[in-house]
Amino acid sequence: MHILFLSDNFPPEVNAPASRTYEHCREWVKSGATVTVITCAPNFPQGKVFDGFKNKLWQSEWIDGIRVIRVWSFITANEGFLRRIFDYISFMVSSTIASLFVRKVDVIVGTSPQFFTVCAAWVVSSLKRVPWVFELRDLWPESIKAVGAMNDSFAIRMLEKLELFLYHQATCIVTVTNTFKSILIQRGVDGKKIQVITNGVDLERFIPQAKDLELIHALGLKNKFVAGYIGTHGMAHGLETLLDTAKLIQDSSRDDDIHFLFLGNGAKKSDLIAYAKNKGIKNVIFLDSISKDEVAKYWSILDVSIIHLRKTELFNSVIPSKLFECMGMGIPVLHGVSGESAQIVMTEQVGEVFESDNATQLVQLLIGLKNNADRIYSYRKNGINAAKLYDRTHLAKKMLSILEGLVAK
Predict the structure, then answer these.
(1) Which CATH architecture is the domain 2-200+391-408 placed in?
(2) Which parts of the chain have pLDDT scores under 50?
(3) CATH 2.30.30.240 fits 213-390, yes or no
(4) For the chain, how long is the longest CA-to-CA vector?
(5) pLDDT tens for residues 193-221?
(6) Which of 283, 301, 357, 364 is the least buried, fewest Cβ under 10 Å from its Cβ?
(7) DSSP readout, 175-225?
(8) Is the dihedral of CA 325, 331, 337, 339 positive or negative?
(9) What is the structure's pLDDT at 79?
(10) Which residues contact 350 (CB under 8 A, 6 or more apart)?
(11) Which residue, 111, 94, 76, 97, is CA-closest to 3?
(12) pLDDT given for residue 373 in this prediction
């Protein structure tokens, strides 16, 4: 079986779509499938092409048995609605054209969050007369409104019509949460063609390990209780709440051994750095994104991981993928997201849940956890055990069986 996968994010980018796509495709190749990925030059989230790559019309390489074709796109930073739309549309056109030169395809997968890539999957499937899968990772364009990037307008309503059209046209829809499936059914999409494959964790990479003492010394974190946020610093994440938490702890003088680590890039990072500087917050370190091969050692130095999204009803339907990496590493979680993901945290007992945007509550939980070694040990142990339920290898094989079923029909 030959799978053609369209995704505008792929390694060496390290965001959730890139990781999920690569890890699934890698497992499919191991299971005997032929996989071709069409993507663009790596540039997320700063909008700058990574060293060693060029933004060319066509370039091809092999990564762990996956044929990767990179096409030209209009590259811009992850900020500014119109410029991002041009980015998405340019990749849609380039990936559609490139797909026509990929022969003997049996099934096509187009992944969101934005669905212009999915538009390309629909067009190519129509031309090649093969089934296609809409992998739904985000309720876009609803998320545009949720983060305040754009208000309800004629343009948004047109995008929503296109969204529904694609749902109905897809041979199969694979969502990453059960909540997404329920929402689609409420909107009139046939539930029989919707499958749920949650995000997961690569248990070959994210496993419990001793703290990297060299890194701790290099960052000046010896004898500190380290609370960390690792991931994209975007409009959706509301990381000002974490900085307000750091400020409250700093001003209280009760727990000056608590320190905050922010690792990653994104549209809001420069604003966050300025915010911390203006408020005189000293117990915070900002670091730029690092490669996937290095990130585990940064996870290792955390005593607790903080996961947070802005307080909006839409985000009750998402499950941040970093939750599963925390489980795999055995890192307790303080989880500032309501809904399905919070239920996982409570059911698996891998951490504690706080209200989004509530810095005061987060302060209390942080101090309480720091002073309770037994709870930390319990959350670590539970996380390691729960991670096995979200093993990426198992989830990839589950999705492969769905694709095989489509081809068989």
Answers:
(1) 3-Layer(aba) Sandwich (3.40)
(2) none
(3) no
(4) 66
(5) 999 999 999 999 999 999 999 999 999 99
(6) 364
(7) ESSHHHHHHHHHTT--GGGEEE----B-TTTS------HHHHHHTT-TT-E
(8) positive
(9) 61
(10) 326, 327, 332, 333, 344, 379, 382, 383, 386
(11) 111
(12) 95
List, in order, residues 6 or more apart from 253 with CB less than 8 Å away.
Answer: none
Contact (Cβ atoms closer than 8 angstroms) between residue 324 and residue 299:
no
The full DSSP string for 304-347 is: EEEEE--S-GGGGG---THHHHHHHHT--EEEE--THHHHHHHH
Q: Do domains 2-200+391-408 and 213-390 have the same CATH topology?
A: yes
- Put simply, whether the predicted model's pTM sits higher than 0.85 gets the answer yes
Residue the block writes with tokens 């187009």 = 110
Q: What is the DSSP letter of 389?
A: G
308: its two tokens: 């947070």
Domain boundaries, the chain: 2-200+391-408, 213-390
Hey, what amino acid is at 131?
P
Nearest partner of 228 among 245, 208, 250, 213, judged by Cα? 245
